Amino acid sequence: MVSTDNSTPRAGARTPLIAGNWKMNLDHLQAIAFVQKLAWSLKDAGHNFADVEAAIFPPFTDLRSVQTLISADKLPLVFGAQDLSAADSGAYTGEISGQFLAQLDCTYVIIGHSERRMMHAETDEVVAAKVVAALRHGLAPVICVGETAADLKEFGPSAVPVAQLRKALAGVTSASDIVVAYEPVWAIGSGQAATPEQAEAVCAALRAVLLEVLGADVAEKTRILYGGSVKSTNIGGFMKQPNVDGALVGGASLDLAEFASIIRFQKHAF
Ligand code: PGA
């Protein structure tokens, strides 16, 4: 059905995705309370999840509780993990297999977040192997790319994210369900978001990579998110950009009212 809501300029069939990356916050009991309240608050506000998809990415130890709650109460939220192993099983102490995540009904898995690249020395090769592992288990990878402030100064805005995406897709041959998140490292947790125009320019360059590597269909249907200090007061500017299809939200995804307001951007930001 053709939507009559013209509040978003996004032309194609890309449903906006607002994704909350909780990082290492909220234990499984807190997660249950948060998810219940978020679902109620969105339901009370009449949110249409077909218009804007809402996803949460809790810590691993919360996933079983979140799965049980969402399935028992038939909540229209989707969820994913913040990382996975490139391997499926074996002697990998502390690692989590994509197979386990798929068994827990995860839809998505974040791969290559800058915190993992920096704190856990994840290389582009590791990221590429994790993307393949996610797809092997039917999980949609949320591939994170983004430049540091030093990269920005040295190489300009899109060179590093474009190179990272190319490398992350090295093992991907067919059109699968993938999501790309452009997260400038300098904007993460800094309160200093990119401008909508900066985000649009890089997201357009990332879509050109998708076109070149995976073809027109994939480039057209793949959601590209912006992440880095997204709030309810700046989400509208990003969502007006034709190549920005949603947001990966860190800090603000832990504040219930704020996250709900970001998800409901169409109601207040246009
Ligand atoms: P932030 O984090 O929204 O707190 O800047 C974004 C992220 O790291 O995904």
- The CATH class label is Alpha Beta
Bound molecules: 2-phosphoglycolic acid
**Helicity range of the residues?**
40-55%
Biggest beta-sheet profile: 8 strands, parallel, barrel
CATH topology: the name is: TIM Barrel
Number of helices: 12
Task: Write a structural description.
By secondary structure, the protein is of the alpha/beta class. It has one domain (17-268): Aldolase class I (TIM Barrel, Alpha-Beta Barrel). 41% of the residues lie in helices and 14% in strands. The protein is built from twelve helices and eight strands. It has helices spanning 28-44, 63-72, 98-103, 114-119, 124-136, 149-155, 159-168, 196-214, 216-221, 235-239, 256-263, 265-268, and strands spanning 17-21, 53-57, 78-81, 108-111, 140-145, 179-182, 223-227, 246-249. It has an eight-stranded parallel beta barrel with strand order 1-2-3-4-5-6-7-8, surrounded by five helices. Strand 2 (53-57), helix 2 and strand 3 (78-81) form a beta-alpha-beta unit. Helix 1 (28-44) runs parallel beside helix 2, helix 1 packs across helix 11 and helix 7 (159-168) packs parallel to helix 8. The chain is globular and about 45 Å long. The chain starts with 16 loop residues before the first strand and ends with a helix. Mean pLDDT is 94; it is low at 1-9. The site of 2-phosphoglycolic acid has 13 residues, from strand 8.
How would you concisely characterize the structure shown here?
This protein is α/β, with parallel strands linked by helices. It has helices at 28-44, 63-72, 98-103, 114-119, 124-136, 149-155, 159-168, 196-214, 216-221, 235-239, 256-263, 265-268; strands spanning 17-21, 53-57, 78-81, 108-111, 140-145, 179-182, 223-227, 246-249. It has one domain (17-268): Aldolase class I (TIM Barrel, Alpha-Beta Barrel).
